[in-house]
Design brief:
The structure is a homodimer.
Chain A: E1 4-10, H1 14-25, E2 29-35, H2 39-48, E3 53-55, E4 66-69, H3 73-83, E5 92-95, H4 101-110, E6 114-119, E7 140-143, H5 151-163, E8 167-170, H6 173-197, H7 208-213, H8 221-230, H9 232-254, H10 258-273
Parallel strand pairs in A: 1-2, 1-4, 2-3, 4-5, 5-6, 7-8
Antiparallel strand pairs in A: 6-7
Helix pairs in contact in A: 3-4, 6-9, 9-10
């Protein structure tokens, strides 16, 4: 089902590349244009079949009906503002950033048909080399419409993400940033922090427990630096709650309080059991 | 290769049951006796082929050449002391507990041929129902001999664990407890604590990042309560180091210090890359 004529993807990495592959496989657009700062990325995206043609310049978006901002989170606003004078009238624009509040505020002021989206399909892998036409299948995509969002735009964007295989969840941008700080930003801080604190000379004893707990410390460093700095209030609030929980366990151990420790572990374990297994 | 005539396993759960299955599959003993407080466990262990016969009483160990203490960590010492008047002369005794210092100190004083062992093959699964003859294949078993350990006993125990598929690492009991607090006890505290702090209403957004980071919060609660309370000094020291690392990340976010944050994340990520993938 063709949803768009020309789609332009700015930033052809894991997410942008997978969107391109997904659109082309399902024939959701006549043409996919990829824009990157790196000629090598464009060539690889073409070889992989994620885009029909590529450009080093954002001006290549002029003919697009849909522009997808899939660059790292700290450049989304800058690029979004830059294209505002270039896009053709009526064109939709979405982003795929991991934080939403600031991006949506700034870009819906500059772009008439902007919808914030966040596919929860990131990975410690990166780059178009790891892109896949089914990266999004079975995962969640959060859409963050506001009072300014056109219902027609929203319907088309919803349709796009459903075709790419995601379930749709609607959240306000602020609510998204608050919840995602707990389920994504906090776990990343913890994984990086745990790796920082484990002595190198103990690593030869690491089994699957430590490995799974720190898998996401393999995530792209600059991307995560920027995500954490783009959502500081929520991230710090989540971190404070986690520190409070750690201090409860610490106290129970210091006081040798088996009853209190069991209660904390049991409630945590029950909550963990309520999470569905991976897709 | 037969290493023992009769082997008695006290505690026929995931670990004890898997040792039984492994011994029987590889014909490492003529007979495996299982001892449990629960008739149901004995019956299940027999049905699964993990033991030849079972008993509700530890006195069933009288004829064993090897006694394996595979109960939860807080009952190992008590049971070890109890069997000291029952074992036949020359019989070997090992335990499989997750902490070693206290257990080895107490049991090598009471049992002439005791060797502390710790197979790093625990799982969030539990019970003989989940036991497997290859649970230990490819994983590490730490042996914690001391000056009192007989070299003949140590050689036989090493041989047993190698036959069961593990790589052997030798550590003093104290060193074991220190290193394992980082690679195992700390990650468990973190997983439980993260689950405690994530609000229930955000869980529907959880993707693989949160799930992997908290998988070990599915581990048996009472077992982990006891492990943490059996190794408090080391666990608290590891926790302190982790708290220090969290505070560094917190400061970098508060001060919007992109450079410091990148440095922390990068070093953590590089250290994580040095871990080999799961077996």
């Amino acid at each position: 089902m063709k949803l768009f004529n020309k789609v332009a993807i700015i930033g052809v990495g894991l997410i942008g590349g997978s969107i391109g592959l997904g659109i082309k496989k399902r024939k959701l657009a006549s043409q996919v244009i990829g824009i990157s700062r790196h000629r090598k990325t464009i060539n690889l995206a073409k070889t992989r079949g994620a885009i029909d043609y590529g450009s080093l310049s954002v001006s290549a978006i002029r003919q697009a009906d849909l522009v997808i901002l899939a660059t790292p989170v700290n450049s989304i606003i800058k690029i979004g503002l830059k294209i505002s004078s270039l896009i053709k009238p009526g064109a939709l624009v979405i982003d795929t950033g991991s934080t939403k509040d600031l991006i949506v505020k700034r870009l819906e002021a500059a772009l008439p048909n902007f919808v914030g989206t966040h596919p929860l399909s990131g990975s410690e892998r990166q780059g178009v080399i790891n892109a896949s036409d089914n990266l999004f299948c079975g995962s969640i995509c959060v859409l963050t419409p506001t009072a300014k969002t056109s219902q027609t735009s929203l319907r088309k964007i919803k349709s796009l993400w459903i075709q790419l295989g995601t379930r749709i969840i609607y959240l306000s941008p602020a609510r998204h940033d608050k919840l995602i700080s707990y389920v994504s930003h906090l776990p990343h801080i913890i994984a990086f922090s745990l790796m920082q604190s484990v002595p190198r000379h103990s690593l030869y004893l690491a089994s699957s427990g430590l490995k799974d707990t720190t898998r996401i410390a393999l995530s792209p460093v600059e991307l995560w630096r920027d995500i954490l700095l783009t959502n500081p209030e929520n991230t710090l609030a989540a971190l404070e709650k986690f520190l409070n929980s750690l201090h409860q366990i610490k106290s129970a151990i210091i006081q040798n309080d088996a009853k209190a420790l069991k209660r904390i572990l049991r409630l945590a374990s029950l909550k963990r059991q309520s999470l569905k297994p991976h897709r």
